[in-house]
Design brief:
The chain has 259 residues and is of the alpha/beta class. The chain has helices at 17-28, 46-57, 74-88, 113-144, 179-198, 227-240; strands at residues 8-11, 35-40, 63-68, 95-98, 156-160, 205-210, 248-251. Strands 3-2-1-4-5-6-7 form a seven-stranded parallel β-sheet, sandwiched between helices. Bound molecules: NADPH dihydro-nicotinamide-adenine-dinucleotide phosphate (NDP).
Length: 259
Amino acid sequence: MEDFKIQSVLLTGSDRGIGLGLVQQFLELLHPPQFLFATCRHPEGPEGQVLKEMAARCSKNARLVVLQLDVTDPHSITAAAKEVEEHLAGCGLNLLINNAGIAQETTLDSETAQSMAAVYATNTIGPMQVCQAFLPLLKRAAMKSNCPGMSCGKAAIVNMSSSYGSITALDEWQRHQDVSYRCSKAALNMLTRCQSLGYGTTGVLCVSLHPGGVKTHLGAEKGVLTVDSGTKKILDVLSSLSAKDNGTFVDWRGQRVPW
Ligand code: NDP
């Protein structure tokens, strides 16, 4: 973990919950990223303000750049990609974490087309379009790196998934059916597999990550980990990912989750 060096990271949904916790953890690294792009829907809102205050407190060797990015709005995605490219000035983006997500407490009976579509738009289509927009920068990072193999420090996409999306495990089905959420994360997992085949050949590592049950707005009473301890563990896992993990589904302990 002490050796974990990463030049640039971009996070979606970074103004609260796991996203905000990850921003904090990256800034506390022995070698913090030179560029940490913390994106959120409402940078001018109260939660965006917290990020901006963190940015103002950053040391000279780490830059926290707060950008607007709504994963359901293609214009906002392309605008953010353009800004990131300008900041990076010819360098690539090393790590993209598709963290933004929503959940609806639904059952098979109560699920609707509208909620299904809304959850899918944020949790599945959003990450797909964000990856498409940032792929040139990720490829550039892979191409310019001298590091052998694959790693988050070189070029990687991490899709924040959930054990609820595991078709085999069907985690907590008796307590929470959450059909749209489960389907959106199962589809996200398939997206990760497809990306690992399509982008893996260019050196971009692609992984689905289950962060564990974390006490956030989304995790609510299901969470057992605090944001601080959960995100520390996520960073441990990110620092250890390599080519053997390309196209896999891992959890906060680094263990494989069954598809
Ligand atoms: P939170 O509800 O605390 O945070 C969700 C974040 O996603 C917020 O920053 C929110 O922004 C953002 N977001 C929602 N919709 C959009 C959008 N359209 N564009 C950009 N950002 C958006 O949830 P968590 O931190 O718990 O969840 C983070 C990820 O981890 C999710 O993908 C979730 O599925 C996954 N996960 C979480 C678990 C847990 O126990 N907490 C368990 C398993 C998976 P805003 O403030 O604007 O609403």
